[in-house]
Write a structure and sequence with these properties.
single chain, 323 residues, alpha/beta, four-stranded mixed beta sheet, 9 helices, globular
Length: 323
């Protein structure tokens, strides 16, 4: 079963021929955060040619007590403490961290000062989307009826990227089951071909044989995108292309900024400056549907009393873990 799954994941590689050479130059530090992701994530990366994967030994084996972290959540920067230490030692290009059941993945990359920081789920989603579409267009296998699916609370930058390649982008309610439902609808109606789906909460998918967010699928694509970026003479993931410099602005049309506290502290903090979002299909009058604008900041559930000394990203990670 494991071998069959890894074989299927390997088919998701966008540029397998490129990775036979480009993968050798990339260094990745990976932590499964005491969960189940170590074997499948490492195996899938090596299958496509990523040879230099360094696993955080202290977090390599399953541990129900999650002894080395307060919260085993890849959205929490503190969960990457040991991984960042190892990354400094080996000179890693980027750091991957999957949650215990390996359906979500967080990424840390270097800033201009050489310090590692966590990318947001919106940033990762847009990098992957751009890489997939640009590569498949160049290879001539981007479907004309291709569709991108995202949750309604995820960045509208994804829509601009999709439209720039002639694809459509659908919004769904929050929860990856709704993205999976759209995949099923596409297959039943035959009107679109699913290309990529994501949520800002670190969930990504490019396959149709899995109908949920998949950290192994995402890890393979992120590693490939990082290796490809290095062949372009750019920092892994941070500057994947001129149109998405540092993942902060798409200057062709509109302006996009991170929500308060997301990304690197002190940069682009503040409210979203995005256009009105498309309604989520099947939203049925919920907030944000029917053309109404979503709240300018994170949903009300993130505004509960909490430690003011923590960043919004840390508070959000604790909230998801029930802390």
């Amino acid at each position: 079963m494991d071998d069959d799954y890894i074989a299927q994941v390997k088919t998701l590689s966008v540029q397998p021929e490129l990775m036979k050479t480009a993968g050798k130059a990339l260094k990745i530090v990976y932590t499964p955060l005491h969960g189940s992701g170590n074997k499948p994530s490492a195996a899938s990366s090596k299958e496509i040619g990523i040879e230099n994967v360094y696993v955080v030994k202290e977090q390599e084996l399953p541990d129900p007590n999650f002894s080395t972290v307060k919260v085993p959540n890849p959205e929490d920067p503190a969960a990457f403490t040991l991984a960042m230490k190892l990354a400094d030692e080996v000179g890693a290009d980027c750091i991957f961290g999957t949650d215990p059941d390996c359906d979500r993945v967080g990424i840390a990359v270097k800033d201009d000062a050489g310090k590692y920081y966590l990318m947001t789920g919106n940033q990762i989603g847009c990098v992957l989307l751009y890489y997939i579409l640009k590569s498949r267009k160049a290879l001539g296998n981007l479907p004309a009826d291709g569709a991108v699916v995202k949750s309604v609370v995820s960045t509208e930058l994804a829509r601009k990227i999709a439209e720039s390649f002639g694809l459509v982008c659908f919004n769904t309610l929050t929860g990856f089951k709704w993205i999976a439902e759209k995949i099923q609808q596409f297959q039943e109606k035959g009107d679109h071909t699913f290309v990529f789906g994501f949520e800002e909460s670190y969930g990504f998918l490019s396959s149709t044989f899995v109908r949920d967010k998949d950290g192994v699928n995402a890890s393979l694509l992120i590693a490939e995108a990082a290796a490809w970026a290095k062949t372009q003479g750019k920092d892994a993931l941070r500057h994947p292309a001129g149109d998405l410099q540092d993942l902060r602005l798409l200057r062709r049309e509109g302006r996009f900024r991170h929500p308060a506290g997301q990304g690197r502290r002190g940069e682009d903090e503040g409210d979203y400056e995005e256009p009105a979002r498309e309604p989520a299909e099947g939203a049925g009058g919920q907030e944000g549907a029917g053309g109404s604008r979503l709240p300018r900041r994170y949903p009300y559930r993130l505004r509960r009393p909490c430690d003011p000394g923590r960043s919004a990203q840390e508070r959000r990670a604790l909230f998801r873990a029930g802390g």
